[in-house]
């Protein structure tokens, strides 16, 4: 009888040991992707083909393909103010084979739409490729000489000056609202479908002020059609060394610099995220990649760790959420 119990106990323990080893092996295989990647990677761009996001994804994707020795496919999924493409990645398998081309919509849209995503839980940032500086500009015929002049004028005439808004929830829109909060002024939003419409209105003098991308504003400043007051950037930008950043002008809380990068689904194994982060950082360290990114009028970024990227996402999300709530902005 005792021998039978011992035999049964032996078999039970053996069964548990085999089961435990299989569970450990399975978990290890999921958490330690030593052979990742073994098939093509897809980068989903939540914007139209031919735009900045599409071009950026292809530049980085081509270099990453060489580093990881697997094809990288760029798939454009525009629509819903970037929500369609972003949600597609949030719901994708967390296996490292579906990446998001991330932009300000990743951190702004959750506060604009009721049924969006949580950028801190549903995504892991794996790379910040470029920043996209913008210039705060006024028409050439404006009497203001600098940012201090404009703020003084706006305070003398509350709610009488307007600004060009290229899209609800766009980085230009939110930067303007952040600037209004930081400086204590009130400006009336004049909506346009995109930045070119704002540019035309500025040149004509139909709006008093607006943020524009450097690529769009710089030629008009050089030709004397616009005057720059400040730049949203980490540092002063080449070509306009006398134009201060908003932070230098005393409005650092409004100096939220838009960036483009990459993210993967939130449940992606840490080891996989590290592998992707390393590949993107190696791509960003390439001089030919940096040259191509500068040709997009973007500022190439230095390699960042997963923790550093997470901190940027959290900071932007919290700043955008605060200004959207205070200004009562909604896109639903």
From TrEMBL:
It comes from the Bacteria. SUPFAM superfamilies: Periplasmic binding protein-like II (SSF53850). InterPro entries: BUG (IPR005064), Bug_dom1 (IPR042100). Gene3D superfamilies: Bordetella uptake gene, domain 1, Periplasmic binding protein-like II. CDD domains: PBP2_Bug_TTT. This is Tripartite tricarboxylate transporter substrate binding protein. It comes from Rhodoferax sediminis. Belongs to the UPF0065 (bug) family.
């Amino acid at each position: 009888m005792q021998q039978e119990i011992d035999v049964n106990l032996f078999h039970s323990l053996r069964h548990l040991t085999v089961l435990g080893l299989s569970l450990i092996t399975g978990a290890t295989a999921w958490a330690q992707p030593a052979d990742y990647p073994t098939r093509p990677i897809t980068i989903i761009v939540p914007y139209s083909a031919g735009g900045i996001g599409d071009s950026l994804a292809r530049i980085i994707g081509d270099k990453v393909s060489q580093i990881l020795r697997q094809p990288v496919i760029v798939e454009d999924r525009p629509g819903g103010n970037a929500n369609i493409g972003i949600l597609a990645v949030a719901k994708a398998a967390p296996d490292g084979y579906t990446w998001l081309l991330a932009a300000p919509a990743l951190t702004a849209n959750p506060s604009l739409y009721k049924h969006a995503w949580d950028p801190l839980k549903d995504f892991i940032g794996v790379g910040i490729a470029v920043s996209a500086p913008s210039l705060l500009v006024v028409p050439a015929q404006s009497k203001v000489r600098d940012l201090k002049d404009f703020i003084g004028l706006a305070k003398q005439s509350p709610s009488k000056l307007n600004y060009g808004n290229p899209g609800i929830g766009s980085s230009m829109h939110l930067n303007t609202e952040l600037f209004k909060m930081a400086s204590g002024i009130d400006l009336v939003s004049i909506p346009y479908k995109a930045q070119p419409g704002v540019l035309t209105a500025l040149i004509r003098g139909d709006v008093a002020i607006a943020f524009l991308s450097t690529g769009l504003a710089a030629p008009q400043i050089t030709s004397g059609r616009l005057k720059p007051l400040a730049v949203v950037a980490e540092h002063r930008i080449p070509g306009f060394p006398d134009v201060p950043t908003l932070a230098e002008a005393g409005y650092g809380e409004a100096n939220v610099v838009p960036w483009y990068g990459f993210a993967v689904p939130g449940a992606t194994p840490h080891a996989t995220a590290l592998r992707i982060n390393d590949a993107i950082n190696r791509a960003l360290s390439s001089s030919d990649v940096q040259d191509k990114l500068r040709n997009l009028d973007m500022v190439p970024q230095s390699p960042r760790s997963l923790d550093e990227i997470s901190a940027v996402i959290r900071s932007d999300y919290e700043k955008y959420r605060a200004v959207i709530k205070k200004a009562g902005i909604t896109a639903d």
